[in-house]
Specification:
alpha+beta; four-stranded antiparallel beta sheet; two-stranded antiparallel ribbon; 12 strands; 46% helix; globular; disordered N terminus
Length: 559
């Protein structure tokens, strides 16, 4: 659950398994709200902004999540939610809301920690908006408007439930989420509305680039898909109201709630979308249950990058009857979402999930925090920018940069250069083989020593093959990690095919790259006390990224 203090390693929403890649489609993901978005077509209704604010104030009477927590817990219990008696939900040491083991005996590994009946989950099909979402599919398709993704539909569903205000079944839950303009999720693309222009400009260039990209994508997505969908929803709701007996009777909840829909602009869509993507569960350990849904109270479990202490899975009624601990039969015989202890939970220990093997930048952009320790961290910068530093060093003795054109062509063919291609640095990984290869190829062309790749001694290939086998096994079922390992080994093999001929020039290139990368991830002008107070998340990310880069280049032999 989001902390009231930005930048804490408190999850800004819980999720198990992997995110819904299709739903995140850049037009979703980490919602953005640009200056450019202001010029995008926005959804207009006959309801005044004053009415909208009145609806919000009715639903959100508490200024903090902690203040709204007691009413929420009472509501969850009446809806059939079960929490292990040795657990409590609350805020500890200013770390935000989380789920903790009480004082007493430890909770054994494998024990059920909580059960959330499926009927309690907020998903598209459980909302009154669902008939309208179905009704607009054909009209939008006939207009050539791309279909709404499952995440888009859930975002609009949350906006609809917000429009219902206290009449929403999920009103106590929604009051707990950071959906207010004064209590937003602290993700970078929303910073432009939370900080002054000068403060936002003090973020590291790598964050500024991400903000600009996401804001532009949000503006385009809202104009091309969300705005037409909102207009179609309101039209369909009006038609339904007229068929039900005409406008003015005030009995059609669909039309009234749609008129109060909390999604009116790219900023609204981005703010609600950030929460939905941060809190929604989309995959339950390969069960095929991929449609996103919000799981009240389950999503209060925070993230741990090192060793999570809990996991979430979908339990069928039969499985529930045979599972350890906890009553069964919640809901009308439907499935339940179950959290289990992954290790023994001792008194005071927190139940923590893993949101995935994500870098600190991804955790910040998706959830609004930077963890104090992250073995899955990585720093990505544009390969084109890296090559510009290498080319600057290698072209000093050439009449023009055109002498490096063959090098660019070769590196492009190898997949090391190209639009959007990243250069990735990982903790303890040393200088990436892909970077070494870019430097090697650039230096060989600069010296005129470039020749066809040589054959590598088979005896040298055996250690590489063994390294690949061990690394792929360690990656397990993480296909993305396995692919990254394979690519790295291929780069090492390619590096062996191009012998070094100019070590001093290579060291010069690597030093230039290091200095440039540090500029991309560091706070402009340093992280003075004022910046720490204004942009604590950005400062935390900058420090973590600098540590990664320094570690990669700590071997003085490469410089």
């Amino acid at each position: 659950m989001p902390s009231s203090v930005p930048g804490q390693q408190r999850r800004k929403g819980g999720r198990a398994g992997k995110s819904d890649k299709s739903g995140k489609a850049r037009t979703s993901g980490n919602r953005r709200a640009p200056a450019a978005a202001a010029s995008s077509p926005s959804h207009t209704t006959s309801v005044s902004q004053k009415d909208t604010l009145r609806s919000e104030s009715t639903l959100f009477q508490e200024d903090t999540a902690e203040a709204a927590l007691p009413a929420f817990l009472r509501w969850a219990e009446t809806k059939g939610f079960w929490l292990h008696p040795q657990l409590e939900v609350g805020s500890v040491d200013d770390k935000g809301i989380g789920v903790y083991a009480r004082h007493g005996i430890p909770i054994p590994s494998g024990m059920v920690l909580m059960r959330c009946p499926e009927s309690l989950g907020l998903r598209t099909r459980s909302s009154g908006l669902y008939p309208l979402l179905r009704a607009i599919r054909k009209p939008l398709r006939s207009q050539g408007v791309p279909p709404l993704s499952p995440i888009d539909e859930l975002i609009l569903t949350v906006g609809y439930e917000l429009g219902l205000g206290p009449r929403s079944v999920w009103a106590p839950y929604l009051a707990l989420l950071p959906l207010r303009k004064t209590r937003e999720l602290s993700v970078p693309f929303l910073w432009t509305g939370r900080h002054t222009a000068g403060e936002a400009a003090d973020a590291p260039p790598v964050i500024q680039a991400r903000i600009e990209q996401e804001q532009a994508e949000l503006a385009e997505h809202f104009a091309s898909i969300i705005a037409p969908a909102l207009a179609a929803i309101q039209s369909a709701a009006t038609t339904r109201a007229m068929r039900a007996g005409g406008e003015g009777e005030g009995e059609n909840v669909d039309a009234e709630a749609v008129a109060m829909l909390a999604v009116r602009s790219p900023r609204d869509y981005g703010r609600i979308g950030a929460v939905v993507r941060g809190y929604a569960f989309t995959d339950f350990h390969g069960t095929g249950q991929a449609l996103p849904r919000l799981l009240p109270l389950v999503d209060m479990m925070n993230h741990c990058s090192v060793r999570p202490t809990a996991s979430v899975l979908l339990d069928t009624p039969d499985a529930a009857r045979s599972s350890q601990g906890g009553p069964t039969g919640f809901g009308a015989g439907g499935e339940t979402m179950v959290a289990r202890a992954a290790v023994a939970l001792w008194p005071g220990q927190e139940a923590l999930l893993s949101y995935g093997r994500l870098s600190s930048l991804e955790l910040l952009c998706r959830y609004g925090f930077v963890p104090p320790a992250n073995p899955h961290d990585a720093v990505e910068v544009a390969a084109e920018g890296v090559w510009a530093q290498i080319a600057g060093c290698c072209s000093e003795g050439l009449e023009s940069d055109a002498g490096l054109t063959p090098a660019v062509d070769l590196l492009t063919d190898m997949g090391l250069l190209g639009d959007g291609t990243p250069c990735t640095f990982r903790p303890g990984g040393g200088v990436p083989p892909s970077l070494r290869l870019m430097v090697r190829v650039g230096c060989l062309h600069a010296d005129g020593d470039m020749a066809d790749p040589i054959e590598v001694d088979p005896a040298i290939l055996k250690p590489l093959a063994a390294e690949l086998e061990v690394a792929v096994a360690a990656a397990g079922d993480d296909e993305e990690a396995a692919a990254a390992v394979q690519a790295e080994v291929q780069m090492k093999l390619a590096l062996l095919q191009f012998p070094q001929t100019n070590a001093p020039l290579e060291r010069k290139c690597l030093a230039a790259v290091r200095d440039w990368v540090l500029q991309q991830v560091a706070m402009p002008g340093g992280d003075q006390a004022g910046k720490v107070e204004a942009l604590p998340e950005a400062v935390a990310l900058a420090r973590a990224s600098i540590a990664v880069i320094d570690g990669c280049f700590e071997d003085t032999k490469v410089l």
